[in-house]
Amino acid sequence: MQNTTALEPKITSPDCDDCPIRHRAVCARCESDELSQLEGMKYYRSFEAGQTVIWSGDRMDFVASVVTGIATLTQTMEDGRRQIVGLLLPSDFVGRPGRETAAYDVTATTDLVMCCFRKKPFEAMMLATPHIGQRLLEMTLDELDAAREWMLLLGRKTAREKIASLIAIIARRHASLAMPRKGSAVEIELPLTREAMSEYLGLTLETVSRQISALKRDGVIEVQGKRRVTIPDFDRLLEESGDDSDGGFPV
Known about the structure:
Blueprint (H helix, E strand, L loop, with lengths): L31 H8 L2 E6 L4 E3 L7 E7 L2 E6 L5 E7 L4 E2 L10 E4 L3 E7 H10 L1 H27 L2 H20 L7 E4 L4 H8 L3 H13 L4 E3 L3 E4 L2 H8 L10
Antiparallel strand pairs: 1-8, 2-7, 3-6, 3-8, 4-5, 4-7, 9-11, 10-11
Helix pairs in contact: 2-3, 4-6, 4-7, 5-6
């Protein structure tokens, strides 16, 4: 299968200093001369919700950071069954230096903008600029921690804890980018439909809807429309997720 053609970029040439993911992306520690070097290998691509970024097994000649929007990582089994194995949120890194092909299908869940770097020049710069490799290592270890947390979620948590955990994960990332005031309510847009949430969490659609309604009824969350969620008290959400609230919400 060939890669889906991207739409015209919604972001053309923003100043890196004004980039919404600048302090969390792989380039977070770059100096001005290094940012200028990245400019020479950088381009933006935009995708509509539902559009495929790349298929598993396809040659991948770029690496990228998610600037805005959400994407899913999906694995397809030989019999055609599909499983969402991860979410890509703003500032997450896509692709692996040194690997020629994509390991998973990457699909835009919402409208998506990615800051892409041509792979070969990026790999060469990574070797010459140690702190880029160090930052990528940190992000990879964070991803490993998230994968282990997700194993716990899928294997041991109740349906209510699974829903609360997913909302908490999205809220944490929103907080790391938006920098809300401590103690203030947080509003997020759920990136997945309830059908996708059921697939991702290993629950039925009815169970997902029932548990969201229960969290709303108990005042843990407030829901406006289909996907907008307000979290009045993040510590209470963490309690409902079965997690320790210590160090939970970045401020």
